[in-house]
Amino acid sequence: MAFIRKTKQFNWNRKHLLGLRELSAEEITYILDTATGFEQVSTRSVKKAPPLRGKVVVNLFFEDSTRTRNSFSLAANRLSADVIEFTQKSSSVSKGETLLDTARNLEAMGIDIVVIRHNAGGAPRFLSRNIKAAVVNAGDGYCEHPTQGLLDVYTIRKIKGSLEGLKIAIVGDIAHSRVARSDMWAMTKLGAEVTFVGPPTLMPSQVHKLPVKVSDSLDEVIEKVDVINMLRIQFERLGGNPFPSIREYSHYFGLTVERMQKAKPDILVMHPGPINRGLEIESEVADGKNSVILEQVKNGLAVRMAVLFLVNQAVMVTKEK
Amino acid sequence: MDTELLIKNGRVIDPANDIDKICDVFIADGKIAQVGKVEKNVQNVIDAQGKLVTPGLIDIHVHFREPGDEEEETIASGSAAAVAAGYTSVVCMPNTKPVIETETDVEYIHRKARQARKTHVYTMGAITKGLAGVELAEMGFMSQAGAVGFTDDGHGVQDPSVMLRALKYAGMFDVFIAQHCQDDRIAGNGVMNSGYYSTILGLPGIDPLAEEAMLWRDIQLVKKLPPEKVRYHAQHISTLGSVELIRAAKKDSLPVTCEVTPHHLLLTEECCSEYDTNYKVNPPLRNSKDVESLKQAIADGLVDALVTDHAPHLQSEKELEFLAAPFGIVSLECALGLFVKALVEPGILDWPGLIRLMTAKPAKIIGIDKGTLGIGRQADIAIIDPEKQYTIDVNTFISKSKNCPYNGWEVQGKVEKTIVQGEIRFQAK
């Protein structure tokens, strides 16, 4: 297809995108390159391409989501797929139908791709083992959010040219963040040095075994980094009382105008959204010249188009065999 | 009626009486009549040459789900599975629906076991009503009805004052108190061991401290009480820290015993990598250092019983997200082979050492007159082919549930015949 820029010959054969942990740097780069081609579709007057025509994509969302779900819907629409929205607040067994039964029912309707968001880590992997359709993870518990990780590295690469040698800080509730994990896998595979920043109460178990540096001082880290990704404080995920107050958290870990003065002038400020203005990030910074937050959202669309395109392609290749 | 049975030329292993020799066992009227060279003309003779003849195995930690979850297991199906695996006595946990917390509940278990007529089935009673950890259950009446001990298994008794009261009160009846050591506030909503794997899998973890903190606390409580009036048993210990606590307690000669399961000896947290819920178990699978420490503890004689914690669940219950699936593994029917793999093959235990931890020692914990081939005792016997290799196949299980992560494993050591009260209740095909 004309809009796919092939940098080098590569054979994509993954039918599912479950996480970035198992992807190679080459595979990640291939998705990013594919996304670059799709970015142009959105700039045309007719914002549509045909590769998923006649295919059915289900957005199977068991958790609240606005931007990820809309982004996937739009991505599927732009690729000419038919899209079913399936939203259920809770997937607990007590509600009756199990995840597997739900998926099998949808499959009986003849779907091709399931985009799933679920509160349980591993739910997409579980599904991929049990149904025939391609599965794309749109966020599972605090395991992974691969398309967010991809759009983050896509955004960085687009502006900085490459991730090789970049220093990147990811700040906030690392323990409960799927974004932090997917970012970590993608960024480190592409050659960046990642530092997790936050209070020890918000660090995951045995964080020292991960391929990252760890710091509890944003003030020390901010001077050194090329990119800073401010995670949203997700009150619904925080167990107990990991920090004494929002005020104290903001004091130590908020990205304030004052703190930004210590940063490199060309630092990229990122946030997966939605923003708690004034909590993890001050409005002036979120809307300031270093912020690429809306760029991330824009790139998310191209990345998701690329992912849907590639998993569908893998399905077609498998069928031909 | 044939009341005599002669088992000839087996390797008789009877750790309770320090016997390990090739000889015969003569059974009359359901009791052990003679062990040694038997020159008798008996109609029923079993040739046990090349086989082990041991006391029937005893598992002091099983869940047979009756009453309440009979679709998962019943006393009939569970004890049929047990007898096919060489077990002649099992101890059911009281976390059924309803909970075993009155003498009537205890009698119900016994009645079902009599009807099943497979193994001896004992039960423990709840320490607290409804396993809620607040009010003591009627331990006196339950022990009169035959409950062999008390536990809130599935839960730990959270409140130290309640646990202290339970330990004191049980002293009246010479029964043991067993604890599923888990501090719920530390464990939180964890579903696997807390560590590198829980982090990359994005699953909430259970810190080893949840187990160790409660075990440490309980040992302090035990120290407060007169040693002749208390017996404390730590169920399914799983961590290096717990091993060290047990080591120290035994060094101080405290009345403390403990047990270990096959999964904590053979599997690690890494097994959860693919979110296979057959590896979801509580206490969770830990890391290789914990596994090594448990093996060392067994080598050092710190462990008193090998148990399965046989916990049946239907496939439909386990076919869920890892977060939502229930905890539990079944391993009763392959337990012997698993323990051989974990302990005998690497040379940690010899056969008599293994059999001791599956017979005499657990019998002593629950205070029953079994696990021995002593003259005049009930003839509960397992005949084992120690060389027999086979592949574990869950489809051959008698148990109603197949939630067994060992499906397809090659193991060695298989039960050929199981004799309960002198009667052959199981014969391998």
> How would you describe the shape of chain A?
globular
CATH superfamily (homologous) name of the largest domain in chain A: Aspartate/ornithine carbamoyltransferase
| DSSP E strands of chain B, number | 18
In total, the number of domains of chain A comes to: 2
Count up the domains of chain B: 1
Q: Can you describe this structure?
A:
- The complex is a heterodimer of chains A (321) and B (429).
- In chain A, the strands form two sheets. Chain A has a five-stranded parallel sheet with strand order 7-6-5-8-9.
- The longest helix of chain A has 28 residues, at 293-320.
- Chain A is 38% helix and 14% strand.
- Chain A is an alpha/beta fold and 321 residues long.
- Chain A contains eleven helices and nine strands.
- Chain A folds into two domains: 25-145 and 298-320, Rossmann fold, CATH 3.40.50.1370; 147-293, Rossmann fold.
- By secondary structure, chain B is of the alpha/beta class.
- Chain B has a single domain, classed as Alpha-Beta Barrel (TIM Barrel).
- In chain B, helix 1 (75-83) packs across helix 2, helix 4 crosses helix 7 and helix 8 (240-251) packs parallel to helix 10 (288-299).
- Chain B is globular and about 65 Å long.
- Classes of the chains: A alpha/beta (321), B alpha/beta (429).
Give keywords:
heterodimer; A: about 325 residues; alpha/beta; Rossmann fold; 2 domains; five-stranded parallel beta sheet; four-stranded parallel beta sheet; 11 helices; about 40% helix; B: about 425 residues; TIM Barrel; eight-stranded mixed beta sheet; about 25% strand
What's the structural blueprint in terms of helices and strands?
The complex is a heterodimer of chains A (321) and B (429).
Chain A: H1 25-39, E1 56-61, H2 67-78, E2 82-87, H3 99-108, E3 113-118, H4 123-130, E4 134-140, H5 146-160, E5 167-171, H6 178-189, E6 193-197, E7 213-215, H7 218-222, E8 227-230, H8 246-253, H9 257-260, E9 268-270, H10 283-286, H11 293-320
Parallel strand pairs in A: 1-2, 1-3, 3-4, 5-6, 5-8, 6-7, 8-9
Chain B: E1 4-14, E2 19-28, E3 31-36, E4 45-47, E5 52-55, E6 57-62, H1 75-83, E7 87-92, H2 103-116, E8 120-123, H3 139-144, E9 149-151, H4 160-170, E10 176-179, H5 184-187, E11 192-193, H6 196-201, E12 205-206, H7 208-224, E13 232-234, H8 240-251, E14 256-260, H9 263-266, H10 288-299, E15 305-306, H11 315-318, H12 335-344, H13 351-358, H14 360-366, E16 381-391, E17 410-420, E18 423-427
Parallel strand pairs in B: 1-4, 1-5, 6-7, 7-8, 9-10, 10-13, 11-12, 13-14, 14-15
Antiparallel strand pairs in B: 1-2, 2-3, 5-16, 16-17, 17-18
